[in-house]
Design goal:
The complex is a heterodimer of chains A (about 210) and B (about 160). By secondary structure, chain A is α+β, with helices and mostly antiparallel strands. Chain A has one domain: CheC-like (Chemotaxis protein chec). In chain A, helix 1 crosses helix 4 and helix 2 crosses helix 5. Chain A is globular and about 50 Å long. Chain B has about 160 residues and is α+β, with helices and mostly antiparallel strands. Chain B contains two helices and ten strands, in the order βββββαβαββββ. The chains are: A alpha+beta (about 210), B alpha+beta (about 160). Chains A and B meet through helix 2, strand 3, strand 6 and helix 5 of A and strand 3 of B.
Chain lengths: ~210, ~160
């Protein structure tokens, strides 16, 4: 049979705290970047098979913008930041100070290049914030790779982030944290941070934090 | 009168079979490859959605064989033969390179490796590839109709077409 992970309630709480600390710091960075208040939801820790991972971000055909980073250092894994097309367009408009910027599946050429580079930069900042907070909390040295950005069906994008762990297992432990803009405002940012540590990283993490 | 067709969904690292009047499909293929094996005359078909090329790279002994090209294709073939399929042919799609970055990482060329591994597995089983739509850098949803032996493909920014 396949390896099923088991997490105790305490371990789950530790992983939720990881999401809180990391995504909390990332939400603060995004808030500063946009000059708007960004809220963070309570992190969700899921043990999911690959199909369920894709359901978490809207299902296999959902058009998404996905930014993917390999996490390197004492703990390894993948960080995925997922926005839907409209949210990604809004971020591009804010970052480029251009309300006319459009981002859709039809966008191409220079417009697409500008959008991709703006989104990659946002990804760098957010992932950097997430991992810095995590490094401080755990005392582990963690660095992100360069961003890998894709704009396509969620199934096509998200499987890229699962390739590494799929060599070992058919399940991923996912720390999913959603960020949202305040409801009263007109614009709406709603993104997901999915931190998918490699299976071998969990023992290291729990040991480092003094819970075995 | 409208007839609602049953559509069987195949997930990642999964394999299923159908018979007319049902269709079979898999959604959001990126670097993964979807392979349809079918018996045109008996209208039996199976679809495999592989994620990785080579099961010898598996880091566990009890891996899911449907995840790897080299193990999934022979198993799908056997499943179809058990159902009475003969004179089996193949159509395949997927194997895109989803990220333009990623030199020296597992992201690099995984789509190409998956395509090559499926082609190799089909060659070993003496199955002819009738048509394929592979590579590129966009995701695909594919659906096969065993009554017509046509594989329809949907990509973003594209009308549906069949191969």
């Amino acid at each position: 049979m396949m390896d099923a992970f088991h997490l105790t309630d305490l371990q789950k709480d530790i992983l939720k705290e990881i999401g809180n600390i990391g995504a909390g710091n990332a939400a603060t960075s995004l808030s500063q970047l946009l000059g708007q208040k960004i809220d963070m939801m309570v992190p969700n820790v899921e043990i999911a098979d690959f199909n369920e991972v894709i359901e978490l971000v809207g299902g296999p055909e959902q058009p998404i913008v996905g930014l993917m980073f390999q996490v390197e250092g004492e703990m390894t894994g993948v960080m995925a930041i997922v926005f839907d097309m409209r949210e990604a367009e809004y971020l591009v408009q804010k970052i480029t100070y251009n309300n006319q910027s459009r981002l859709s599946e039809q966008t191409e050429g220079a417009d697409l290049d500008i959008a991709m580079s703006a989104l990659s930069e946002i990804g760098n900042i957010l992932t950097g914030s997430y991992l810095t907070a995590l490094s401080d909390f755990t005392g582990m040295n963690l660095q992100p790779s360069v961003p890998h950005l894709g704009m396509d069906m969620a199934g096509a994008i998200m499987t890229m982030g699962l390739l590494e762990i799929s060599q070992v297992t058919d399940y991923a432990i996912i720390i999913d944290t959603e960020i949202r803009q305040e409801e009263e405002s007109h614009e709406n940012i709603n993104g997901n941070f999915l931190f998918i540590p490699d299976p071998s990283s969990f023992q290291k993490l729990f040991a480092k934090l003094g819970w075995n | 009168m409208s007839i609602t067709k049953t559509i069987v969904n195949v997930g990642i690292a999964d394999t299923k079979t159908v018979q007319t009047p049902a269709n079979i499909r898999t959604l959001g293929l990126g670097s993964c490859v979807g392979t349809v094996l079918y018996d045109e005359k008996r209208q039996i078909a199976g679809l495999s959605h592989i994620l990785l090329p080579d099961s010898s790279q598996a880091k566990t002994s009890n891996f899911n064989p449907m995840k790897y090209a080299d193990t999934a294709i022979p198993q799908l073939l056997e499943m179809l033969q058990v159902k009475g399929a003969r004179n089996i042919k193949a159509k395949m799609a997927g194997g895109a390179q989803m990220f333009q970055t990623g030199k020296g990482t597992s992201f690099m060329r995984i789509g190409d490796k998956n395509i090559e591994a499926v082609q190799e597995a089909l060659r070993k089983s003496n199955i002819r590839i009738v048509s394929s739509d592979v590579g590129g850098n966009v995701g695909r949803t594919i659906e096969f109709d065993p009554s017509t032996s046509m594989l329809s493909i949907r990509k973003r920014n594209h009308d549906i077409y069949t191969i």
